[in-house]
Amino acid sequence: MKSLSSNTKVSLVIVGVVLAVVGAIVLFNQIGQPDAPAEVADGAPVAAPAEILVRPDSHLLSPAGGKVTVVEFLDLECEACGAAHPDVERLRAEYGDRVTFVLRYFPVPSHQNAELAARAVEAAGQQGQLEAMYRTMFDTQPRWGDQQVSHRETFVGFARDLGLDLPAFEAALDDPATAERVLRDRQDGLDLGVLGTPTFFVNGIKFNQPATYDGLRSAIDKELAQ
User: Over the stretch 10-20, which tens digit does the pLDDT of each residue have?
Assistant: First the structure.
């Protein structure tokens, strides 16, 4: 048997190295990819874990016990959330106690005042004015959103307009526990696969369509009919 030439030997070595590198890259990519969402037998997505989706301290914007629960992860500085807000309010009014709407914070880090706004809503909630501050934030969003300066004084002004105890409001606003409460919501969103805002879950199923009035109403009516 003839021995391999030097060039052939070099070529084989190179091919072997290339195959090893390609194999390692494929393995690395497989390890780095998240598991695909679990599915039931008919291909429908599995509902998000109820104990993560709605916590005991989650804020209900309508009575508990509705046949359908709609959870919204939102960023108060997000223009898309602001655009969806009137539709959510309309749906709340139309469905009453048949549908439970839940507010979850998901401040996007690139929004300068998003977390601060969530803390302001949370601080107002400690004085029974969470929903009033929540609505004020969306009603005034063009005044303070998408800006690279702190609007703390703006939010304190909102608290003043709502007749809140200002020292108590500011203490709650600056309390690390308030920030932790907001960021726990955000972490739950991340754990549930929330990538942006607004993100809705209807009876635990992530709503993967544009957040329009008609789309959400259709998803709610489907659940109510079951």
Answer: 454 444 444 44
Distance of CA 178 to the CA centre of its chain: 18
Answer for the pair 121, 129: CB distance below 8 angstroms, yes or no. no
Convert the pLDDT of each residue in 70-118 to its tens digit: 999 999 999 999 999 999 999 999 999 999 999 999 999 999 999 999 9
59: left (phi over 0), alpha (psi -120 to 50) or beta: beta
Q: Give which of 147, 166, 146 is closest to 156, Cα–Cα.
A: 166
Q: What is the DSSP string of 175-202?
A: -HHHHHHHHHHHHHHHHTT--SSSEEEE
List, in order, residues 6 or more apart from 74 with CB less than 8 Å away. 81, 103, 104, 105, 106, 197, 198
Spatial separation of the C-alpha atoms in residues 156 and 40, rounded to whole Å: 48
